[in-house]
Structure prediction request, 326 residues.
Amino acid sequence: MPTTSTNPHLPFGENKNADWYGKDIISVKQFSRDDLEYVFGVAHEMRGMVERVGTFDLLKGKILANLFYEPSTRTSSSFTAAMERLGGSVIPINEVKYSSVSKGESLPDTIRTLECYADVIVLRHPETGSAAIAAKASKKPVINAGDGVGEHPTQALLDTFTIMEELGRLDNLTVTMLGDLKYGRTVHSLARLLSQFSNIKLNYVSPDILKMPKEVMDEVGAKGVPQAEYSSLEKVLPETDILYVTRVQKERFEDPADYEKVKGAYVIDPTIMKVAKKEMAVMHPLPRVGEISTDFDEDPRAAYFRQMEYGLYVRMALLAMVLGKA
Ligand code: ASP
Ligand code: CP
Prediction:
């Protein structure tokens, strides 16, 4: 195997001086515009390699511990696929009740255990701040795959990658976030990440009890991004370039009666979408539970299935970066 590559993004040797080598990925606040450009460049290379050869040996011999304390389909399986497409392997802990977590083992101890066996740890956990706690306990890189209502940084990276792929730009955009903006961690990360681009306008459409948290709005506002809150989509849909739909996060409600009041508050369908631009995209982190009618799936603006696929390339890029191979 050669020790160097002519491809600047995919050197074969481990580069311990690379910017992201050994780093944790906890928050989108770690990513500048230049970092994003770099991630997208590597993700493009990954996509090309997957299309050409399917699987290759960039991370051969490396092991990922995939530790999920909450349900997941996409994040868990795309990290597994990413590691395996790069020639590495995975310790899957998708059901923590079958691990020693059910005997009462603490998160730091669980992390200390897994770092003995793995080179990188992906963690999803119901508590905000858990990824930072895990990163503190670990000498190996920890990647936040969702920490309660906090952040979902790898989702926001794949979301911005999707916006680039769909519309070709991250500046000069009106982005409308719809649904559960209070408990939806994906919109907390995405609003923060978009706030560093130029001429961005953010519209937040939600029921009154599910508004975007003040903390996020203050951070985004401090970057000079105009933000406006609405309870109905009608007024803002015609100007929207990206409509980012979210699921009402049933599992986060303290009072189930409150969930009943707001579930089904918004449903995107072909009739509603008649007033939207021809060149725009509808995104959703998924899973959907009725917020987007399946009748809309064949519309060219429905980007949510492509968005899922892009997640594979972005996560391949992130694994290669933190393991010093990009
Ligand atoms: N899958 C995303 C998350 O884990 C969105 C959702 O569950 O609604 O945050
Ligand atoms: N988008 C997302 O995080 O999906 P999963 O919850 O299925 O991982």
Q: What stands out?
A: The first helix runs from residue 33 to 53. Residues 1-11 have pLDDT under 50 and may be disordered.
